[in-house]
Design brief:
568 residues, Rossmann fold, mainly beta, single chain, five-stranded antiparallel β-sheet, five-stranded mixed β-sheet, 6 helices, 32% strand, Jelly Rolls
Length: 568
């Protein structure tokens, strides 16, 4: 739950752009003192859903590009907008009290970028991992289970990825997972392995993903626990024969847990609670809280719930009654000092990129930060007879990506322009450098404090990594393959380039050089000279022939009359 107050908005009020149809309305709880005016001391609360997206299999994943969500606040529309409805649900006597809920606790840390180690088939998902478990090594992870329901088991899900240290060898992996003690009585998982008469093998090899779920019996659990992931060596040899290594991606704990807030807040659902064949009434008892000022919502039915608050020796407890039925409800309960705050409020500047009456020969996609620098270059093209648009990246992400930093928004905009604008663009230039670490897990981006593009601090277009038969490859070609064709096998539908700018000074230098190139009367040989560089390359079947590829490039792609310097 987030809160925004009058001070956030007083300088950034109306004339906000109407959100487009691809986003949905979020209900609010508005505290305006009952006067119907949003003025000094007033505030509102809403639920933030996080930076999740749905893939083609309708599974949700956390964004690879930003940890910030974007919300559009609109004033002056008909009606007052969506609100949580106020309901009073005091507890009744004689109804079962529910004190536990099924908690699903996903734990993941992004510390190691591992895409560059790919020697097999391209890996699915993101390329950030928690830790590496080295040869004949182990990784320990401590976790607390003091609030679990007595007598209930723990369901553990985990995802590991194997490592492949060379291109030609096959690497087998064996993992043994223990709870609390590294002995057979506390072994909770191991994958299958065997000896084929010559060497040890297993059912997990190379860079394959190992994702499993195991049940850890409650008899093996304590209040404080430790998971031990052992990279097991079956050779029992002092020689360095077994060369397995693997990454830990994430862990997920599912167990029945007390309805107890952490840091003044709790989220819980009614999944797997006993419901019977019809609506079942239950009383929920949640606590202890440090404050009696609580907000409780059901975010499935958009209700603002009030119940009974009782003060006890260890704090305040909320009790309320509700009917359980399918689909399950999800409750959010916060004390008054536990809300998250919005990072910033920015006045929106309306744009019209969806308007099909638009048209251009070419497009520059740039941040507002560089807009005034790029405009003179676009003007040179206009004098040359081209119809050129300079489009702000902020508008692209808002109109085609729900405000989120995501390369798909750029491609969506280009797709729309290519198929629906009155004049179809033939070239596009992205202005801004790219990175494979847009969320700054490495801590190397000194300017990135907030990743929402309106702040003018990111100044980069994220690249997209698509799958080839060899590995995941970053390339801007993907942005302009707009007819549903594979970017590995076909040419793009627009010409695409990038000015890899990282500050205004460098961008100005590149723009001035480009203007000079376009307007200079010097047509010496340097303008028709190319340098072609290739090595022998490789495939899994044997050496490749990149020089031959270069010769085909000269014969079939390069304009006639160019001078070629070859470094093969």
């Amino acid at each position: 739950l987030y809160t925004g107050d009058h001070r956030d908005l007083i300088e950034e009020s109306p004339e906000f752009e109407q959100p487009n149809d691809s986003i949905y309305e979020v209900p609010l709880i508005v505290f305006d003192g009952g006067d119907g005016m949003f003025d000094e001391g007033d505030y509102f609360i809403f639920y933030g859903f996080g930076t999740f997206f749905m893939d083609e299999s309708r599974q949700y994943h956390k964004s690879f590009y930003s940890e910030y969500s974007v919300y559009f606040l609109t004033f002056g529309v008909e009606g007052k907008g969506m609100r949580y409805s106020d309901v009073s649900l005091p507890p009744d006597e004689g109804i079962e009290v529910q004190r536990y809920y099924l908690k699903k606790d996903h734990r993941e840390e992004e510390k190691i970028y591992a895409a560059d180690g790919c020697y097999g088939n391209p890996r699915e998902g993101d390329d950030w991992y928690w830790t590496t478990v080295g040869r004949i090594g182990a990784w320990e992870y401590q976790f607390n289970m003091a609030d679990r329901e007595p007598g209930e088991d723990l369901r553990l899900r985990f995802r590991l990825r194997g490592k492949k240290l060379t291109r030609t060898e096959t690497y087998y992996h064996i993992v043994k997972i223990y709870i609390n003690y590294q002995n057979d009585d506390h072994l909770v998982f191991q994958n299958n392995y065997w000896y084929d008469g010559e060497k040890w093998e297993s059912d997990w090899k190379n860079e394959e993903m190992l994702e499993e779920e195991v049940v850890i019996p409650h008899e093996l659990l304590k209040d404080e626990n430790v998971l031990i992931f052992e990279n097991f060596d079956p050779t029992d040899s002092e020689d360095d024969i077994w060369k397995s290594e693997f990454w830990v991606d994430w862990l997920e704990f599912t167990y029945w847990c007390k309805l107890k807030p952490y840091n003044g807040k709790i989220e819980f659902g009614t999944y797997e609670m006993e419901m019977g064949f019809g609506p079942v009434e239950k009383i929920f008892e949640i606590g202890p809280f440090e404050s009696s000022e609580l907000i409780a919502i059901d975010r499935i039915t958009n209700r603002n719930i009030s119940g009974e608050i009782e003060e006890r020796d260890d704090g305040f407890y909320l009790r309320f009654k509700d009917e359980l039925f399918q689909p399950a409800k999800i409750y959010e309960i916060y004390q008054d000092n536990a809300f998250s705050s919005v990072v910033d409020v920015i006045r929106d500047q309306p744009s019209n990129l969806h308007d099909v009456s638009n048209g251009a020969d070419g497009i520059y996609v740039t941040y507002d930060y560089y807009y005034d620098i790029i405009e003179p270059l676009a003007e040179v093209h206009r004098h040359e007879g081209y119809d050129v648009m300079v489009v702000k990246a902020e508008d692209v992400y808002e109109e085609f990506g729900k405000g989120q930093l995501d390369p798909t928004a750029i491609r969506n905009m280009l797709y729309h322009a290519y198929h629906f604008w009155e004049k179809r663009p033939t070239f596009v230039t992205l202005v801004g450098f790219c990175t494979k670490d847009p969320m700054d897990h490495w801590g190397r981006q000194k300017d990135v404090g907030r990743l929402y593009l309106h702040h003018g601090m990111n100044k980069m277009h994220p690249h997209y990594e698509f799958h080839t038969s060899y590995r995941k490859v970053p390339s801007d070609i993907w942005f302009t393959c707009l007819e549903g064709r594979d970017p590995v096998k076909f040419t793009p539908d627009m010409a695409i380039s990038r000015i890899s700018a990282y500050d205004r000074e460098y961008t100005s230098w590149v723009v001035n050089k480009s203007i000079d190139y376009s307007t200079s009367p010097d047509y010496g040989d340097w303008k028709i000279s190319t340098t072609l560089v290739a090595d022998n390359g490789f495939t899994f079947e044997g050496p490749g022939d990149f020089p031959e590829d270069m010769e085909e490039l000269i014969e079939y792609v390069m304009p006639y009359g160019f001078i070629h310097k070859k470094i093969y």
